[in-house]
Amino acid sequence: MSEHRQYKPPRLAERLLGWLLPEDQWQTPLGDFEEYYNEIAHEHGEGAARRWYGFQVIRLLPDRLYEKTVGGTSMLKNYLTTALRKARKQKGYVLVNLSGLAIGMACCLLLLLYVLDELSYDRHYAQAEDMYRVVLEQRSDRGTSRVAAVPTPMAATLVQLYPEVKTASRLSLITPVVGYQDHSFNETRFFLADSNFFDFFDIPLRRGDPQTALATPNGVVITEATARKYFGDADPIGNVLRVTVPRTYKVNFTEQDFVVTGIAAPMPSNTHFHFDFLASFATLQGHNEQAWMGGVVYTYVRLQEDASPSALEAHFPQLVLTYVGPYLQDRFGMSYDDFVASGRGHAFFLQPMKAIHFDATLDMEIEPSGSMTYVYLLSGIALLILLLSCANYINLTTARTFQQGLEISVRKVLGSQRGQLMRQFLTESFLLVVLALLLAAGLVAFALPGFNSLADKQLHLSDLWHGYFWIGLGGLVVFVSVLGGAYPAFFLSALRPVTGLKGYAWAGQRQSGLRNSLVVFQFVTSMILLTATLVIYHQKQYMVNKTLGFEKEQVVVIAGARLLVQLHRSF
User: Fold this and answer.
1) What are 426-476's pLDDT values in tens digits?
2) 82, part of any domain
3) Tens of pLDDT, residues 70-102
4) Which residue from 299, 326, 303 is spatially nearest to 136, judged by alpha carbons?
């Protein structure tokens, strides 16, 4: 029975040997090796056969590695030379293909820049994973609302009571009139901030000490742009700014002098708040520090690395009973049970820092929120544009089927193998895609200022240069190269020489079906995008030009009118 048994060589060694053997001699020698393997196994045992087979693999390895590396390099050089020669002979075809791919990839990169910017909001902080904002949910007879601001004493209470909270920092937004000498401006990005703001948010100071700049009352840190706005080229440090605020529960002053104690670097564009002024919270001297009702300040916490946010949130109901309840009783003579029985209530939650930008459910947000729907929509549009350019590329490639069929047939008659032809076509496609990508990068750099103005962004081409982007870019190049070169590489390379020399008429129906499908896809997708663009444009024009029932040019809106009484001396 053992004499008739068929032994199979080790699968891994057999695959390696198949790779080492010349491509045009693969089947016959591999079969011979298997016969010798069986003879040795029958005569000397399977162990001896395995040793012999492994020795053959090792023996062939040096010569074949040299041939596949040095020889492969020579073949690659030959592929590139052939591709460049074709490009010089077919300038019109290459120009149309190159321009179509470059424009499609440029549009795709512009939209990708926007999407990446939206997804990067508040992710640049060193400990962003552990940073949260405390938000308030208020229930009343008018319904439930979620507010981005919480009572003033929340930050100190959390740090004091819960070891999970490593540190906390507060911001309070006011809109004062800020004056220096004989000029003043209405400011909308004036914040009161705790002294640990710069350490908490990783914001460097260009001038001043970040540890003391906001530690004392009446200190203010301004940005470089604000310093030029108020002081020109003069040194702003130590100068005094007069701040006039409408009467509000947020602060306990209406006019106050602030001394410039530092110059801050600007906040990154991809963050949910931006400031021009940061005044010391110590200026309020304990104002509202015992008020546990309403949203007054934006409170941020940084948790310990091993802390659970859900475990911390589990303490919040008791915190409400401990602090909000007594405040209600003392201020309004109402117990918290009566407060809840009347249909009202208070609850606090943690909002991850990375989730702030896309959460549009909160009131009193500092800046407008983003929309994940737009991110998905623009990503889909970018993919459609890329597929359109690829479809155009494939259409142009299949239009040259007759010439390519003749070329493939002649090269096969001269001894070319199918694998060599596949690599040749894929190399040509890869080279064209890389050139299109370089051209697309130039188009993006040219169009970026206008795109930034349209999208109200501060995008830079350098925003793409990240490790994960290079991986994605490599995948994009391979995807487009394979998709664009798939038809000639995988279908035309299988053509029999005699068929190609006779005119390749048998493939006409296949080619026609593929091209018709791609053309339909191009037209349908283009019409959808154009129709959507026209609808959005006309809707915007309607909103801008709709008659409102009054003459807009004759109406004046005075911002901060409540300050007119306080500033009457200026008129």
Assistant:
1) 777 788 888 888 899 899 989 999 988 888 888 887 777 766 677 777 787
2) no
3) 445 555 566 666 666 666 777 777 788 888 889
4) 299
Q: In terms of DSSP H, where are the helices of 414-569? A: 418-455, 467-486, 497-501, 508-545, 563-566
Q: What is the largest CA-CA distance in the chain?
A: 116
Return the minimum-mean-pLDDT range out of 84-88, 121-125, 189-193, 208-212: 84-88
| DSSP helix/strand/coil, 178 | strand
Q: Are 427 and 79 in contact (CB under 8 A)?
A: yes
Domain count, the chain: 3
* Whole-number Å distance between alpha carbons of 563 and 547: 32
Amino acid code (one letter) for 169: S
Instruction: Judge whether residue 134 has pLDDT over 90.
Output: yes
**CA–CA gap between residue 328 and residue 336 (Å, rounded):** 7
Handedness of CA 191, 192, 196, 200 (dihedral sign): negative
Is residue 236 in a domain? Answer: yes
The span from the CA of 211 to the CA of 221, in Å, is 12
Phi (first) and psi of residue 174, to 5 degrees = -130, 165
What distances in angstroms separate CA 432 from CA 87, 481, 486, 548, 560, one per listed residue? 9, 8, 14, 54, 59
Name 24's Cβ contacts closer than 8 Å, sequence gap at least 6.
417
Tell me how far the alpha carbon of residue 440 is from its chain's centroid: 19
Q: Domain boundary residue among 306, 321, 356?
A: 356
Query: What DSSP string describes 189-231?
Result: -EEEE-TTHHHHTTPPEEES-TTTTTTSTTEEEEEHHHHHHHH
Say yes or no: 319 and 273 in one domain: yes
Residue 55 domain boundaries: 2-68
46, two tokens: 């399977």
For the chain, what is the mean pLDDT?
80
| List of residues 6+ apart from 148 with CB closer than 8 A | 133, 135, 295, 298, 362, 363, 364, 365, 366
Are 114 and 455 a contacting pair, CB within 8 Å? Answer: yes
Tell me how far the alpha carbon of residue 236 is from its chain's centroid. Answer: 37
Distances 329 to 28, 206, 275, 290, 324 between C-alpha atoms, Å = 95, 48, 37, 13, 9
Q: Is residue 554 one of the residues assigned to a domain? A: no
Q: Are residues 250 and 317 in the same domain?
A: yes
C-alpha span between 424 and 420 (Å, rounded): 6
CA–CA distance, 382 with 113 (Å, rounded to integer): 11
Please answer whether residues 129 and 166 qualify as being in contact, where contact means their C-beta atoms are separated by less than 8 angstroms.
no
Q: Pick from 402, 395, 393, 399: which is nearest to 428 by CA? A: 393
CA distance 265 to 207: 9
Q: Kindly report the CA angle at 412 between 406 and 418, in degrees rounded to 5? A: 110
C-alpha span between 256 and 245 (Å, rounded): 9
400 and 526 co-located in one domain: yes
Asked if residue 361 belongs to a domain, the reply is no
| SS3 assignment, position 183 | strand
Q: What is the pLDDT of residues 330-368, one digit of tens each?
A: 888 888 888 888 888 889 999 999 999 999 889 889 998
* CB 208, CB 221: distance < 8 Å: yes
